[in-house]
Amino acid sequence: MSTEDSAAAVSRLCAACGMCCDGTMFQIVRMQPGEVPAELGRLGLKIRCRDREYYMEQPCSALREKRCTVYEQRPVRCRLFNCQQLGRVERGETTESEAMAMILETRALVEKVRGLIEQSGLREDGQALVERYERVASTPINEELEPELAAVREELEKTMRELKLQLNREFRLPPGSK
Ligand code: SF4
Ligand code: SF4
Domain ranges in the chain? Predict the structure, then answer.
């Protein structure tokens, strides 16, 4: 695959995915030395500071219809991040259509988790998926008094485990990569 073809494939795959920006894979993106948090904040990114370390909250406010609206000015870690699927396509270890199938399969799991979180009573609130999941999972339920809710919880826990495994196996890079 030529460099041009590879770049076009990456662009198509990311446009169908968005999971490294929409709060599915990450809760935060750490700022790097030399970055100016105020400048990134002026782009509308959700820049926060804790213990004198700056980071950007996810889901990212610059993501629109799975596309980065600040692409030329995006943070350093966003520039460096290439998920496993993209790496495999670029190295010729997998085809674009295989990577696309994996993305669609994983996105379907994400949608299932989102649906089960809503069925559990937590509406979409703009937080990262894992935070929303943990809020639901830490709420006690009475299995005898709420058997339907207990069944939803069980399905949610199972689907979230499946999703985490798939993200680790197919998308994530070693810790600290974004
Ligand atoms: S997870 Fe990979 S394919 Fe999906 S948007 Fe991020 S870099 Fe692109
Ligand atoms: S700045 Fe762009 S690349 Fe970075 S997380 Fe936001 S949408 Fe994604």
Answer: 3-170
- Ligand 2 atom 1: residue of nearest CA: 74
- Which ligand is closest in space to the CA of residue 58? 2
Identify each DSSP E strand in 12-141 by its residue range: 28-30, 47-50, 53-57, 63-64, 67-68
Q: How many CB atoms lie within 10 A of CB 139?
A: 12
Q: Per residue of the chain (178 residues), give pLDDT as tens.
A: 677 788 899 999 999 999 999 999 999 999 999 999 999 999 999 999 999 999 999 999 999 999 999 999 999 999 999 999 999 999 999 999 999 999 999 999 999 999 999 999 999 999 999 999 999 999 999 988 999 999 999 999 999 999 999 999 999 997 655 5
Which residue has the CA at smallest separation from atom 2 of ligand 2?
68
Query: Is 113 a pocket residue for ligand 1 (Cβ < 6 Å)?
Result: no
Q: Which atom of ligand 2 is nearest to the CA of 61?
A: 6
Cβ neighbours for 35, distance < 8 A, ≥ 6 positions apart: 54, 75, 76
Ligand 2 — pocket residues by CB below 6 A? Answer: 21, 29, 60, 62-63, 68, 70, 74-75, 78
Q: How far is the CA of 84 from the centre of ligand 1 (A)?
A: 9
The reply to whether the predicted model has a pTM over 0.70 is yes
